[in-house]
Specification:
Elements: E1 5-13, H1 35-53, E2 61-70, H2 78-91, E3 102-107, H3 114-122, E4 127-133, H4 137-142, H5 149-162, E5 166-172, H6 179-191, E6 196-201, H7 209-215, H8 224-240, E7 245-247, E8 250-252, H9 259-265, E9 269-273, E10 278-283, E11 286-292, H10 296-306, E12 310-315, H11 318-329, E13 336-337, H12 347-355, E14 359-362, E15 365-368, H13 370-374, H14 376-383
Parallel strand pairs: 1-2, 1-9, 2-3, 3-4, 4-5, 5-6
Antiparallel strand pairs: 6-8, 7-8, 10-11, 11-12, 13-15, 14-15
Helix pairs in contact: 1-2, 3-5, 6-8
The chain binds S-adenosylmethionine and iron/sulfur cluster.
Iron/sulfur cluster (SF4) binds near residues 25, 71, 72 and 108.
Length: about 375
């Protein structure tokens, strides 16, 4: 049995103080949340998954990362965060809480204060990812955010004082945004010396308020050419500021890429708990996926009754796993080893795309070039048999 396998744990907190018009994440507005109850149920679900699927080979794993995502997990009380972190650490062998296990909390600037950030650090959080979204009042309003530019900036500054690993998210390529406006926003970001940046082009997702507006012709997405120009400027500015891309939308200082997301992108194993979370791991030599039910109230009732909210269990075919590895691996600047997955590839097409400078291939490591990353989806459609 292979030993020393990294495993990650994802915890989904499905609540926010308001719903942003672009967001299709599993996030809800709900008052009167019994956080103790929620904490206990999350721990129950973790215990259930570990007992059912990992008890025979727990020792082969070491805990690589914990990620509190949402929704807005910065709304969780620190005592509850601490309890969940302790449980995760207790279950898997870990070297030291601070240095070895990356423990991220996604945070909305509207729910932060310096003392809260300090209490998160005391709870074991060692990496914070702040949803700043924009440093331009006009675009924060467009995005329907319930915080100001000042709040975002102030909380990033506090976060820098409290944590050694600070990331923030920005959205760009919005309707009516100019290249100059995005450049200005990005330059502001570098004033805070981020360790990591997630820079997302705005997408219009099914089921969102923006999608309704789009269908009625009230929201016109930005022109593709302009979006590509912004992507290109982003590449240059991040490189110049020593926070280069390591994935399509993610940029980091050396040694500060997100271990948790890298584990997903490299086809690693993880446990996901909370409404709508997904787990993927090898069980009985098969890559297994667990889907947790999505609706928060249905989930909590189910966990109280059965100890877990698992809705579906599926075993992946090896071809599907390879497909996923390729899909994820090509998002990474370092690329993916295609040796085990050549059978699913149309190699003639691969060589054509290398010739056209969209792909690179060296010793079986296949990478997208910058131009390739601009049209990743169409490349994937072309090279998979
Ligand atoms: C779970 S949220 C982050 C934490 C917190 N809920 C917040 O909004 O501050 C994840 C991130 O996904 C990005 N995001 C969500 N929907 C998006 C969309 N339609 N287009 C681009 N980025 C999006 C946002 O940047 C957001 O910060
Ligand atoms: S972007 Fe963040 S704060 Fe806004 S609804 Fe989505 S999860 Fe909640």
């Amino acid at each position: 049995m292979k030993d020393n396998v990294p495993i990650s744990i994802y915890i989904h907190w499905p609540f926010c103080t308001s719903k942003c018009p672009y967001c299709d994440f599993n996030s809800h507005i709900q008052k009167n949340i019994d956080q103790n109850d929620w904490g206990n149920c999350l721990v129950s679900e973790l215990n259930y998954i570990i007992k059912t699927y990992f008890s025979d080979n727990l020792k082969k794993y070491y805990l690589k990362s914990i990620f509190f995502g949402g929704g807005t997990p910065s709304l969780i009380e620190s005592s509850i965060l601490k309890k969940i972190v302790r449980k995760c650490i207790e279950k898997f062998k870990c070297f030291s809480l601070e240095n070895e296990v990356e423990i991220t909390l996604e945070a909305n600037p509207n729910s932060l204060t310096k003392s809260k950030l300090l209490s998160f650090r005391d709870a074991g959080i060692n990496r914070i990812s702040i949803g700043a979204q924009s440093f331009d009042k006009k675009f924060l309003e467009f995005l329907g955010r319930d915080h100001s530019v000042h709040e975002a900036k102030r909380n990033i500054e506090y976060a820098r004082e409290v944590f050694k690993n600070v990331s923030f998210d920005l959205i760009y390529a919005m309707p009516n945004q100019t290249v100059y406006e995005w450049e200005k926003c990005l330059k502001t970001a570098f004033q805070f010396e981020p360790d990591h940046l997630s820079l997302y082009q705005l997408t219009i997702e099914e089921g969102t308020a923006f999608n309704q507006m789009f269908k009625k012709g009230k929201l016109i997405p930005i022109d593709n050419g302009l979006a590509s120009e912004m992507y290109s400027i982003t590449e240059d500015l991040t490189q110049n500021n020593k926070v280069p891309a390591y994935e399509v939308s993610n940029y980091s200082k050396k040694g500060k890429s997100c271990s948790h997301n890298l584990n997903y992108w490299k086809g690693g194993e993880w446990i996901g708990i909370g409404p709508g979370a997904v787990s993927r791991f090898f069980y009985n030599n098969k890559r297994t996926q667990l889907d947790i039910r999505k609706d928060p109230n249905g989930w909590i009732n189910c966990v109280k009754e059965n100890g877990n909210g698992v809705k579906n269990i599926t075993s992946e075919r090896i071809e599907d796993f390879w497909n996923e590895k390729l899909l994820m691996g090509l998002r990474l600047v370092k690329g993916v080893n295609i040796k085990p997955i050549k059978s699913i590839l149309n190699m003639a097409k691969v060589y054509e795309l290398i010739e056209a400078s969209y792909l690179d291939l060296d010793n079986d490591i296949m990478k997208t070039t910058f131009n390739g990353r601009l049209r990743l989806n169409s490349i994937l459609a072309e090279i998979i048999k």
